[in-house]
Amino acid sequence: MSLACRLAAVLCLAALPSAGFAQSLKWSGDVTPPASPSAPAAPPAPADAPQRTGDYLTLMDTNRDQRVSPEEYQDWLSYAFDGMDRNRDGVLTADEQPGGRGKTVTRDEHRLRIAERFRRQDRDRNGFLDAQELSSPPQ
């Protein structure tokens, strides 16, 4: 399985309301989504995963403008990458990835993939995601 597929699977599973997901992967340390430099507070950790569709908007929308920007989306979905990056160098090496193998990927490469996913999910092409777009699969 390619690295992109594995990361997509990890990110999809991380969005599920499973409190034990991070522990099941045996990540070291706390896994908390990073705060956006312009945002007052960081979104909750994966253990506080949304239970309803509207919860995704509430949790990702750190500036509380009722829409999710590309940066907010990337920050939220990067917590899985950050959790696997045990040495905090911004690079996932094979030994840091599930199964202990895979191609090396940088945090920037990972964020570019998330940006592409955002673009596909932004159906009205306004540069933001609303609750309906967040609940729909990417096109």
Automatic annotation (TrEMBL):
Residues 1-22 form the signal peptide. Pfam families: EF-hand_5 (PF13202). PROSITE patterns: EF_HAND_1, EF_HAND_2. Residues 109-139 form the EF-hand domain. The keyword Kinase applies. SUPFAM superfamilies: EF-hand. Keywords: Kinase, Signal, Transferase. Residues 105-127 have a biased composition (Basic and acidic residues). One of its GO terms (molecular function) is kinase activity. The keyword Transferase applies. Residues 34-47 have a biased composition (Pro residues). Residues 28-55, 89-139 are annotated as: Disordered. This is Calcium-dependent protein kinase 21. It comes from Lysobacter brunescens. The lineage of its organism: Bacteria, Pseudomonadati, Pseudomonadota, Gammaproteobacteria, Lysobacterales.
